[in-house]
Fold each of these.
Amino acid sequence: MEIIIKIVIVGLLISVVFNLFKAGVAMIKGDKQGRSMSHFIGRRLMFTAGLLLLLLVLIGLGVIEPNPNPYRSL
């Protein structure tokens, strides 16, 4: 189960970066025939919101645990 969660999270992060790259390409090309830059930015925002919601649900259900104190040495 843990590996599936990691794969989903990494997949969402990759799709966020991919859509950001596609938006940059659309902005540079300025092509009015293809998809606009706002389409890719909107998809990036949707994937980011989905990832944040997924992480909050998984933390709330206790499936994953955040590091409570990242500065404390063990």
Note: The chain has two helices and no strands.
Amino acid sequence: MTPRQALQQRLNALENHLKSENPILLPIIPTYRQFDRLLYGMGLLQDDESLATRIPWWPMIAVLGTFSAGKSSFINTALGANLQNTGNQAVDDKFTVICYGADTKYEPLPGTALNADPRFPFYRISDEIEKVAAGEGKRIDSYLQLKTLKNDSVRGKIVIDSPGFDADDQRRSVLRLTDHIIELSDLVLVFFDARHPEPGAMQDTLQHLVSKSVRRADARKFIYVLNQIDTTWKEDNAEAVFGAWQRAIAQAGLVSGRFYAIYNKKAAPPIDDETLRARYEAKCDADLTEIQGRIAEVEVGRGYRIVGMLDSLTKELEGEIIPFLQQALARWRRGVLIGDALWAGFLAVVLGGLSYLIGGESLGRFAGWLGETGAGPDGGGLPIRLLVAVALLAGVFLAGHHWIRGWMARRVASGLPERMGEADLNPRHAFLRNTRFFRMAFRKLPVGWGKRAKGRIFAIREAVAQHVQRLNDLYTDPAGRRPHPAQSE
């Protein structure tokens, strides 16, 4: 099976799953295929890639955070099952993917179950790990595990529990997995431990988990949670600890967004002061209610995010990627022109030097010999030798020109990213496609981009509007014409 055939098989499998599990999203697939064709023509996607495989089609919730921050305890409480091991020390060094299953699997399945199944958002993630850490891709079972739970709390969604995060000590492969999870998740809960009131020690962690979210279009999906806040009751300094973490988050670049303080009331030691206990419980209950509400939203928001990605990509393509390619092509064009000028000057110097060495009299005889015309029917003819000499000189110049084109293309391409934007498009591949030997250096528009491509973009935007309207019809009824569920029974 070729990579292209494997992609088609994967897309067909996706359509079959959507037909049975989430048919409202099925009409979106053709729009993704339409966008794929546009990006193939531009070289931003290769033939064995698809935008539809760059996003999860099921709601995905990621729980990240520092060691012993209570992530696993929170997940067990939210799911209503003791699925994850808990403790004060690091109890798991793998990413655990939790989904609905026929049976509850407290014993995890290996990472291969995720890496080899195209229905999961970790399909062939070992290839990405291999790119950043040679030899680690084959050790996928050391990074991922799968657990299933027969519980409606995870039906139709995926929950991910991360190992304790300490950016100083983590390998590049773990950071790559973390970035992958953040990219694909609909909701990211970032946990910090209130028992460590000095957030300055966590600056590297804050930089990785917070700073990258600041400029994202989907920054709202991040929730920052200060867990185990009950440990501050004896000093009665919850507000001070909470404020210190808020300032640390702000210093990492986040100036907006919600920050919550919670604790596990079942596992926490009793708070002797009745007034303090009531205050702590009220704060925890209010924040947990908001967090649970955000978790409940992901099933509704997933459809909008899938559609919204298409709209975001159209803007990103026109506003960022096309100008980026044009700037790269302009640098390449300038380099080629300068190189051509230097090459032409070098050839002129060589010819001038040869003329000087030959001398005026010999040069005149040589020029006369070149200008002789061949015999023809009327006694005339063409200066064959001169034409051949011009052709040879042009050939030498063009050979140098094409070498300069290739050298400049490789030089510019080395500074371009292989992945760019929300969908990890490949501007380096697209740039190299524009520098092939049959492409004119003076062409300013990237290959595949023009009036026809803009027409396709317009059609995709119209399709996006229709998809949004269909989703709105499921959840809204401004005119109040649909019967209330109670009335229809």
Note: Strands lie at 60-65, 95-100, 109-110, 144-149, 158-161, 187-193, 222-227, 259-261.
Amino acid sequence: MAETLKIKVTVAGRVYPLRVKNANEEQGMRKAATKINELVSNFEKNYAVSDKQDVLAMCALQFASLIEIKAINKEEDMTEAIEKINKLNVLIDEHLNK
């Protein structure tokens, strides 16, 4: 069985022990925790939120929406690429049939 690393990250003032597979995963977890903490701080400064759970829910929504927006954009890019490829195929077919 692969050895795991034990790390601790702090999110919104609470420490969470985690196990990660490698240094890259550790770095990713630490960067994510840093981004969450920055967003928590930002929400607490800019909104009258008294409950950490509400702030964390707002953070989760922010990150989840970014992922969904990227997925939508990727899908739109893929559709556009397929349309361009189909147009190129038509042009190639027309040229070959001359």
Note: The mean pLDDT is 92.
